[in-house]
């Protein structure tokens, strides 16, 4: 079943990217010198770097600390909407543009914070896609490092998958889950194959998938992203970063990063979407704490596939759709990175899954008794 479904999409990958710019390895790994100097140095440094790397129009705007302070009512606790490893996130409103914004205020001034701030500004100024977060601008007044995004009214996928009871939200319906997975896959496909320069995202996880009012997903947090290898290069070697559980095993072991590392992380997120379980959850029984280990024996027996569907769906999902979604997940989670699909194949598979065409396809296993 898994093989049959997957084979439909296992077409030869066409190299859509022509004339990829040849970035030197040293540029891939560092954006040096940002922490030095005064405000005007910092501002011109960012603009110079963007100009050096980018060929397109730069859309991000410079905000002053006063403007952002006014927009967030002086970074008031009432405006706090989240907190991550790099600081607090506040909801704000820009009155003269009548726009809601999310303001991410870095609270560390160390090298790491600076570097990730700069990578985020650089990359999001160059990359534009409907499934990537919109960076409206940034502020680097004094010691401040602040990122300004378009506000995403439905927050993060993490809230809707794992925290819905706490937040008094409703569990996500099956179709919305597949819509989110498809959009996230399209975002990654864009980064890997269409973006100029191509990028490995490195930090795909449920909390970094933000949702707009129509449940369209946007990937956020590009501070860990790397320029992808081009030409003869197959990988880049870099410090292992990312979030435990989402990291591809070969990258965690060797530091060799490829686009297939993102494909693995996508498999993890898709399995979280299907099961409603966190990849690592220390609160449950020991055999259920690691999602991948818990799912491994279930993947081997199709009669147990239904045990992987999120119980909060209460059976409201097409059995065939569940099988196909799990087939995609299993392919992405393969230990051997070379056997994982590329993101364009994942996107095609998910588009097929949502198109309704799959209803006409035979299952190929001679047993459709449990399928709708
Ligand atoms: N543009 C946005 N619109 C609405 N809410 C947002 C936006 N950006 C971030 N948030 C909220 O802020 C929370 C924290 O985001 P943040 O990226 O700082 O941390 P994280 O993703 O949870 O962890 P990490 O630091 O490891 O990335 C998100 O989970 C989300 O709820
Ligand atoms: Mg995040």
TrEMBL record:
Q: Respond yes or no to whether keyword Kinase is given for this record.
A: yes
Q: What is this protein called?
A: non-specific serine/threonine protein kinase
* Positions annotated to bind ATP: 105
Keywords, comma-separated and alphabetical:
ATP-binding, Cell membrane, Kinase, Lipoprotein, Membrane, Nucleotide-binding, Serine/threonine-protein kinase, Transferase
Give the species. Lactuca virosa
What main location does UniProt list?
membrane
Instruction: Report if keyword Repeat is assigned.
Output: no
What membrane topology was assigned to this protein in its record?
Lipid-anchor
* One Gene Ontology cellular component: plasma membrane
Q: Which PROSITE patterns match?
A: PROTEIN_KINASE_ATP, PROTEIN_KINASE_DOM, PROTEIN_KINASE_ST
